[in-house]
Amino acid sequence: MMRNGKILFSSLKGGVGKSSASCAVAAALAADGYKTVIVDLDFRSRSLDLMLGVAENVLFTFDDYLKERCSLDALLVSVPVPPSRDRRAGEGFLKLCPAPSEEVFESDGADSYDKIPEYLERIARESGADYMVCDTGADSRMPAIIAGGFANFAIVVSEQSRTALRAAEATAERFTEGTPVSHVRLLINNFDIEAARRSGRAGILEMIDGCAVKCIGVIPADPALAALQDAGLMPGASSPVTLAAANIARRIQGVQTPLFHGMKKERRIAIL
Ligand SMILES: Nc1ncnc2c1ncn2[C@@H]1O[C@H](COP(=O)(O)OP(=O)(O)OP(=O)(O)O)[C@@H](O)[C@H]1O
Ligand SMILES: [Mg+2]
């Protein structure tokens, strides 16, 4: 079982679901009983505090911690997560490390970026986290900084379009030799299985087969997701996003899990 996972979600393409997927997977890891810290590293447009419904509890940001203006306890915001059905014994949690604005972060000089891996390492150590999940924006600098010194597991996120897939492949190429990243995996998000079948677009198995990066999972489209996120609510236990994220969390833990395990509808459609 992989512990000490330092997972980086990224894509050079915007709006493909990096933040949605990182929230869902982090919540699934916590629900499985793991101590999980999710770090919002999108300093251009932070969104995780809103998506996780804890915006009002944010007092400090990563910038304050890096400049040693707050303790780790004051920095991390607890996020309530219902336990998964087969939760292990043990004390899992989900805590958010909120993002500063880029302007604030850079106000003391651009060399603050060099300190990011060291301070992420400190958060991992002091919080006792089993998993650190880092969400990044659609730029190339942040993933390179984190993968260069911190992340050991990179998840590149794509939608079902060919342009998004190409962007994911290009992103994956950045996490090769010279970084501590030992696993690079593709996550296909927002997949509309029925529409793909109707329109004659590439089916899910063709897509996975045709990509140079090994796939860690498929998160189906959930038409209710955007409205839930606007209300600061996480998708419920029966959402395909939650079910798919639980499968991805198991694979991260090293547990072999069939593609649409526990997802009757998707299993049925995918093999048609
Ligand atoms: N599986 C899904 N089903 C339905 N809608 C989704 C899904 N995943 C993401 N979305 C929607 O797509 C939009 C973009 O998602 P998100 O913000 O997670 O992408 P992102 O890659 O983090 O974007 P950015 O590049 O701006 O950081 C949001 O409105 C979100 O609700
Ligand atoms: Mg995002």
Task: Give the secondary structure arrangement, pairings included.
Layout: E1 5-10, H1 18-31, E2 35-41, H2 48-51, H3 62-66, H4 72-75, E3 77-78, E4 93-97, H5 102-106, H6 116-127, E5 131-136, H7 141-149, E6 153-158, H8 162-172, E7 183-191, H9 193-199, H10 204-210, E8 215-220, H11 225-230, H12 240-252, H13 264-271
Helix pairs in contact: 1-12
The structure holds adenosine-5'-triphosphate and magnesium ion (MG).
List keywords for this structure.
alpha/beta, binds magnesium ion, binds adenosine-5'-triphosphate, 8-stranded mixed beta sheet
What does this 3D model show about the protein?
There is one protein chain. This protein has an 8-stranded mixed β-sheet with strand order 3-4-2-5-1-6-7-8, sandwiched between helices. The longest helix has 14 residues, at 18-31. It is of the alpha/beta class. It is built from 13 helices and 8 strands. It has a single domain, classed as Rossmann fold (3-Layer(aba) Sandwich), CATH 3.40.50.300. Strand 6 (153-158), helix 8 and strand 7 form a beta-alpha-beta unit. Helix 1 packs across helix 12 (240-252). Magnesium ion is lined by residues 18-19, 42, 47, 137.
Largest sheet: 8 strands, mixed
Net shape: globular
The structural class is alpha/beta
**What is the strand content?**
15-25%
Give helix and strand order, one letter per element, not per position.
EHEHHHEEHHEHEHEHHEHHH
Give the strand line-up of the largest sheet: 3-4-2-5-1-6-7-8
| Text of the CATH class | Alpha Beta
Distance between the termini: 33 Å
